Amino acid sequence: MKKDYQKLLEQLMNDQIESFEITPDEFMNFQEVFMDFQHRKNVVGSAQRGGNVIYKREDKHTKE
């Protein structure tokens, strides 16, 4: 089942979720939606070992 990336981004901005994860296989499909997302500058991704990326709101992102 394909993820609804627009819905995930909206939930992230509305504080309904704290983060979500995108796999390398999903990245190109996600990127298309992300580039059109109005608040994309408020969303940051952290690359994980293995190629997954965890996206969070920038104001909730803490440097580790």
Can you describe this structure?
This protein has 64 residues and is α+β, with helices and mostly antiparallel strands. It has one domain (5-60). It has 2 helices and 3 strands, in the order αβαββ. It is globular and about 25 Å long. The model has no long low-confidence stretch (mean pLDDT 92).
Outline of the structure:
The protein contains two helices and three strands, in the order αβαββ. By secondary structure, it is α+β, with helices and mostly antiparallel strands. A hairpin with a 5-residue loop joins strand 2 and strand 3.
Number of strands: 3
Specify the biggest β-sheet.
3 strands, antiparallel
Give the overall pLDDT as a whole number. Answer: 92
Distance between the termini: 33 Å
**How does the helix and strand content classify structurally?**
alpha+beta
Question: Could you tell me the radius of gyration in angstroms?
Answer: 11 Å
Q: Ranges with pLDDT <50 over ≥5 residues?
A: none
Estimate the global geometry from the Cα principal axes. Answer: globular
**Total of domains:** 1
Number of helices: 2
SSE pattern: HEHEE
Percent of residues in beta strands?
Answer: 15-25%
Biggest β-sheet: strands ordered side by side in the sheet: 1-3-2
Helicity range:
25-40%
